[in-house]
Amino acid sequence: MGLLTEALLLPLAPVRGSLWVVRQALAEAERQYRDPATVRAELAALEARLVSGEIDQETFDRVEDQLLDRLEGL
């Protein structure tokens, strides 16, 4: 029965393969999003943008709060 099922589902193999790739990409994105080192690097980059004058203090505070909340949620 397993061989017959596989033969019937063979035309769907590209779809199943694509779904696997999407799941792997989502898992990696989630891992990077939750990685404390990534959040710390984003905080450092944010501070550099503030010091260079690229963003104002209000934007810095808002984004910093979001990043710190993300870090606390880990």
From TrEMBL:
InterPro entries: GvpG (IPR007804). Pfam families: GvpG. It comes from the Bacteria. This is Gas vesicle protein GvpG. It comes from Streptomyces xanthii.
